[in-house]
Structure formats: C-alpha cells, structure tokens
Amino acid sequence: MIDDSTRRFTDRVSDYVKYRPTYPREVTTFAHLECGIAPGATVADIGAGTGISAKLFLDAGHPVVAVEPNAAMREAADAYLADYAGYRSVAGSAENTTLETASIDLVTAAQAFHWFEKAGARREFARILKPRGKIVLFWNSRLVKGSAFLEGYEALLREFSTDYANVAETYPDDDAMADWFGDGFEQKTVFPNAQLLDYDGLRGRLASSSYAPKPGDARHEPMLAALRSLFDATQQDGCVNFAYETRVYAGKPMAARASVSAEAQRPNS
C-alpha cells in the first residue's frame, strides 16, 4: 500500500467508524452464488480499516482475518468486531500481508483498493490464495450527479478540500479492473447503496474524508458554512440522500499466479 495512504486516516478514525457507509448484503450473496465461494470459506480482508467490510463477511458466517497497516484503524476494528469468534487482525499491507502461502479461500478489498500498489498486491493475493481461491474487490462510489444535493456536495469538495482533485478520480474504472485481473477476470456487478443523513451525520461523513480541511485550516469554517447552506437547501424531512453505487469485481489472479510459479521454478543465481 502506498506509504502516505497508511497514515491518511489516523486522525479521522472516530468519524470513519461513525459515519462511513456499510456495503449491501448482496455483495456476500454475489460471492456465494456467482463466484462459488462456500459458506464458511476463510476470508482475508485487505486494507480492512475500521472493520466495516470485514463485518459484512463475518455476518455471512465466514472467518475473517483483517489485514490493516494503520494501527489506529486496526485497533478500532478490533474493538468493533471483538464479539466475533471468527475474527482476527494482523498488521500487514496489500503488498505484504504476513499471511501464510495458500492459506486463504477468498481475498476481499473494499474502499482501500485504490491505495494499493497494484502489481505488488496482485502478486501477494496470488501467493496467499489457495489454488482455487478467488478475489472479490468492491467499493462505494459516491454519485456526483442526479440531485441538487449530490451536485452541490461535489462542488463543495472541489472548492474547499485540500487534495480532493488528486484523489477524486483514483478509483479504477471497468477497463482498469479488467486489465488488473487479466485472464483471471470473471465478472462485475453494481448494487445501489445510500445513507440518509441528518446534518450532524453529513458533517461527520465529510470529516471522515481524508481530503477534508481539518479544524485550524482556514478553509474549515467556510466549508462547514457552505455545507450547512447546502443541507438546508436540499434536505427533505431533515435528511439528505447520500447516494452511492457499490461496484464489485471478481476473478482469479491468473497472471500473478503464473508469475509466482515461474519465479518458484527459476534456479538460484
């Protein structure tokens, strides 16, 4: 994982836990029915953060090891998921999970995938997966059009956020994901997702974003004033609809597995 990305959320963990959306349960149904993942299969959730995506698979009956390099986020996940017998966490990254070779049935990665070093992650996923293991990658993509609120929120981010323009377009598109999987790419799907947020929830959701100006920044108070105005102008029954598409990609790391096999057969020099 890119070094800066492992630290970006350290001082935003509380807001992340409270205000980030979960993922549709249809993601696990998709993994079972479309990808052939057996109930009870061992899952490694990479870049697990505060445990939102790990909980999705724990609730579906899977043992999950959460791989997360940020200590503050990993500790939040440990507290959040402490009651699940099938949960454990490790301090690792997408490129160095610390997990044993061929020990995992399903590799998942949710909102963190765009921070990974893609070639290194592909090699590592291939290493830790069992021979018939699968990869399911998914994330919530915030919709930027379709309502006055969504369009106003996007404009607010572009006006006030510190480095939003640098990270706003970093989620891979369909072509990029097909290229990442290579011959192992199998299928994709999209599920609708949304949060209904009152003003405090909306403010917390904004604060959870790594690019939002923090208290003390000259842009912080003007940003909140603009957020309040946007909320007041677009709320219905005291809430706004913070809409997403949950994009899901699945397959096998065929190219990476072939590369790993070739390196294993290479004589020592």
For the sheet with most strands, the description reads: 7 strands, mixed
Identify the overall geometry. globular
What is the typical, i.e. mean, pLDDT?
89
CATH class: Alpha Beta
The CATH topology:
Rossmann fold
Order of helices and strands: HHEHEHEEHEHHHEHHEH
Report the oligomer.
Answer: single chain
What percentage of amino acids are in beta strands?
15-25%
The domain count comes to 1
Strand order, largest beta sheet: 3-2-1-4-5-7-6
What is the CATH architecture annotation?
A: 3-Layer(aba) Sandwich
* Helix and strand composition category: alpha/beta
Q: Tell me roughly what share of residues is in helical segments.
A: 25-40%
Number of helices: 11
Distance between the termini: 29 Å
Parts with pLDDT < 50 across at least 5 consecutive residues: 5-11, 255-269
